Amino acid sequence: MKRVSQNLFKSLALFYHSIRFRLTLWFVLILAFVLAAFSAFIYFAQARDLQIDEVGQMQEKFARVTAFFRNPDWQNLTLSATNAPGSNAPLQSGDLMILTDMNGQTIQSWGVSPSNPNALIGELVSAASQRHDLNIYEQNISYTNNGKQAAGDYLFIITPVLGGDHLLGFLIIGSPSNLNNQLRRLMLSLFFGSLGMLVIAFLGGLWLADRAMRPVKAITQTARTISESDLSRRIHLSGRDELAQLAGTFDDMLGRLQSAFDRQRRFVADASHELRTPLTIINLEVGRVLSNRHSASEYQKALQTVDAEGAHMSRLVNDLMTLARMDSGQTVLQMEDDVDLSDVAVEAVERLSPLAEHQNVKLEVGGMPELRVRGDRQSLIQMISNLVENGIKYSGANQTVKIETQTRHNGKKDLAFLRISDTGPGISPDHLPKLFDRFYRVDAARTRDADEDSDSPAGNTPAPSAGSGLGLSIVASIVQMHGGEIHVDSKVNEGTTFEVTLPLQSETR
Fold first, then answer.
1. How far is the C-alpha of 25 from the C-alpha of 27, rounded, in Å?
2. Disulfide engineering: 81 pairs with which of 87, 185, 312, 364, CB 3.0-4.6 Å?
């Protein structure tokens, strides 16, 4: 029982703090304010109209009484109605009329008899003596009608009786008034009607709020079921309202998160695989030379292998750190104005000339007009070097890697254009969309075997390794950070061409 009470209290607390309850409460409060203002307007407008109607009826009654006494034959006429209301007599059933002298003493009375006429007459005469015209007052009195005691609201009209300029007395005419009862019923009707409308509005508001918040519940439930290992859940909420847009944004976010986690897992797996290979080779070589005694040349060859694999791991780790800094936004480019892209390309070619000679690959420099761009000189050199080294790596002996720059107009603005092409084996169209993905390598056939030059003398430039699959990813990141674009075009057995476009300095100012 205690647990049930706790669960009920917890449910009520959650309901009280829920958005649907607060939205409904605010809606009901606003509606209550509107209903209160509307009811007040209706009440006072109706009260005014009813009061005007009753005053008009009293004035008509006074006019009939005045006309009655002006008739010379009034003594032979009936003043008070004895039958049901609606007769032609000036006084109807329940009415009263009192004629007093100027001191308030009763001279003659007709109709019902007040229980305390002197007190009533005194109050009315005292009020009417302040004015000498028609006065109308409302009073609750006790009276006797046909021998029965009763009480009720009466509306009185008091007018002075004048003889020339002298006050002779007062004429008091009273008629039952139902104004207070009508206003009381009107007030109760407005109150209970408004209360009923608020209850209906509250229940209907809860239903509408619950219906409107169902997409939010769906988003919450989906978010609770999502984990790092399962990001495939989607809401797929149909509609064009704000909640549907929110659900769509949430689905898009989940898609981006899933892609990011997939890239991260693939990145970790590929990095582990890439590091495992050189570590395995190093362990095998060290184990081999330690297992038995060997000649000096065998020790030297083992050390060269260990050194080469260590250098490969160093390049891989440096590339990984470079990409990690780019992803986290920690890479701060030293942007300079008026960097000549052609001069940067020539510097990259000069740095890679020994590698090209060792691979027996010809580096050909095409047109190199002056192209001023805004960028980080070292990053641009790394970008061009990676592309040129990639061309050298996958080109055979006596093949050519060509680099050239020029200006290109895309219809809106002028761009600095860089093209690096090789006459290597080319790339299949199926691989081109993934070429800039991390650790992606087309196939082993396109990679030159580094072991072909393993017997080269020490001190010579080594042949490029198979690569880590990170070079083109770094190139794409550098191009993007400079506000440019990179495209690749390749045909099998004909070669590959990389094209980079960057904004000219005049376009970036």
1. 5
2. 87
Return the amino acid letter for 68. Answer: F
Residue ranges of the chain with per-residue pLDDT less than 70: 1-16, 74-77, 81-88, 129-134, 227-229, 327-332, 440-469, 506-509
Distance CA 501, CA 457 (A): 40
C-alpha closest to that of 504 among 379, 405, 376, 407: 407
How many residues belong to the chain? 509
Strand, helix or coil at 480? helix
Residue whose entry in the numeric block shows the structure tokens 């004048």: 162
Distance in angstroms (rounded) separating the CA atoms of residues 248 and 198: 36
Query: What's the distance, CA 504 to chain centroid?
Result: 39
Q: pLDDT digit string (tens) for 430-470?
A: 888 888 877 766 654 344 333 333 333 333 333 444 556 67
- pTM for the whole structure: 0.48
CA distance linking residue 345 with residue 482, whole number of Å: 16
CA–CA dist 441, 434 (Å, integer): 9
Burial label, 97 (beta-carbon count in 10 A; 0-12, 13-18, 19+): buried
The pair of three-digit structure tokens given for residue 490, joined into one six-digit string = 């390749």
Distance CA 509, CA 353 (A): 35
Domains of the chain (ranges, CATH numbers): 226-331 (1.10.287.130), 332-508 (3.30.565.10)
**Amino acid identity of 55?**
V
By DSSP bridging, strand 362-365 and strand 400-409 are parallel
Per-residue pLDDT of 145-158, as tens digits, reads 777 788 888 888 88
Q: Which residue has the tokens 């409308």?
A: 197
Nearest residue to 320 via CA among 139, 115, 485, 469: 469
Concatenated DSSP letters of 397-416: TT-EEEEEEEEEE-SSSEEE
In eight-state DSSP terms, residue 473 is: H
The percent helix, strand, coil of the chain (3-state, each to 5) is 55, 20, 25
